[in-house]
Amino acid sequence: MVVDDHRLLAEALASALKLRGHRVLAAAAPPAGAADLVISRAPEVCLLGTATPAEPGIFDPVVRIKRDRPQVAVVVLGPVPSPRGIAAAFAAGASGYVRHDERIEGVERAIMKARAGEAAVAPALLQGAFAELLNPVAQPDDEGQRLLQMLTPREVEVLVRVADGEDTRLIAAGMGIAPSTARTHVQRVLMKLGVGSRLEAAALAARTGLLDRAVASGG
């Protein structure tokens, strides 16, 4: 069975598999109800498409399928996943993970492996996942990291001191600079963070985790 939110993709993949001698019970695009459909038809292998492998709960249908029809092997079709996406798929009970842009031969290999009870995931995907786990990169939506990258090391130190409640005189004394220079640094920090006061800067730094990152980085 081929189940995907995009009917055209599901039908195209089903047609390609039929041409290669596979019996396809159904090609469907139910945004919900995917588990019910698979449970009712009980195929040997289900190709389950998703566009958001790292989204919480996205693999709940896999959990249901494996609970009610443990003999069904589920192979997830999705975009290049994060390590979290691959881990979530296998934790839910999936037998494999195949990229949406994989050639039909790759999909067929995954089906055969899953049917044989083996894990069906390309070595390159696993290597990429392990590489990202070993060398994590900042997430695009990580506001604290993004803001931290906008500040110079000296401005980071100023922000930490502002958050500690130091006034311009204390900042200048602690950093060994003139009060006028300290005042300039503070103004630049406020401007870069897009806030109007020291209190707002401290609150933003705490809310986004910027302060924790600044301290951890030795700022």
Automatic annotation (TrEMBL):
<dbReference type="InterPro" id="IPR001789">
    <property type="entry name" value="Sig_transdc_resp-reg_receiver"/>
</dbReference>
<feature type="domain" description="HTH luxR-type">
    <location>
        <begin position="144"/>
        <end position="209"/>
    </location>
</feature>
<keyword id="KW-0805">Transcription regulation</keyword>
<dbReference type="InterPro" id="IPR016032">
    <property type="entry name" value="Sig_transdc_resp-reg_C-effctor"/>
</dbReference>
<keyword id="KW-0804">Transcription</keyword>
<dbReference type="InterPro" id="IPR011006">
    <property type="entry name" value="CheY-like_superfamily"/>
</dbReference>
<keyword id="KW-0238">DNA-binding</keyword>
<dbReference type="Pfam" id="PF00196">
    <property type="entry name" value="GerE"/>
</dbReference>
<protein>
    <submittedName>
        <fullName>LuxR C-terminal-related transcriptional regulator</fullName>
    </submittedName>
</protein>
<feature type="domain" description="Response regulatory">
    <location>
        <begin position="1"/>
        <end position="115"/>
    </location>
</feature>
<dbReference type="InterPro" id="IPR000792">
    <property type="entry name" value="Tscrpt_reg_LuxR_C"/>
</dbReference>
